[in-house]
């Protein structure tokens, strides 16, 4: 009952912002400097839907210093992301731009994520970290992800998005000459041998990569040779930072 009350409180609070324009005087709304100073906003697991995301974009206007936004575990769907995209563009142009964005398990499709990645790839100040984990995207998401790797993204979480062997193969084909990643989570994508082949190529292109999570990809025994080769290629990877199988 308490959890339900909190959800109702948040959605109602967001709806209030939707009723006001961006020129509404903030002090009269009773929030003052609290939102202006906010740097981290975690709304994970609040059952927010696409309409709540539309309201959220108005609330975010009052948070000019926000650097970390976590909307994971909320069914905002593609329409919710579309509503928030103008905010992501605006936030990238601020003195303190948005740096970390988490959209895990948000009921996003490949179309919605493709639209998102296309926009994120053109931001004035690109993201430092992005999570789109636990969304059923399928192997077709590999194309947009390959293009996104051309940005300066440092931390990427694509756990359990359904890449499969064909997705990892496509990522290998589209990989740029230089990748800025320092950490990547590709676990639970069932890529089998192509997971290991992808990592071998990635590590030759990402000299700063120090953390890799490739767990639960069902890599066969013959992957061990490829994994060993990739560890030798990866300058910054240490065994304790490398999770596989």
UniProtKB/TrEMBL annotation:
PROSITE patterns: LRR. This is Uncharacterized protein. SMART domains: LRR_RI. It comes from the Eukaryota. It comes from Vitis vinifera (Grape). Gene3D superfamilies: Ribonuclease Inhibitor (3.80.10.10).
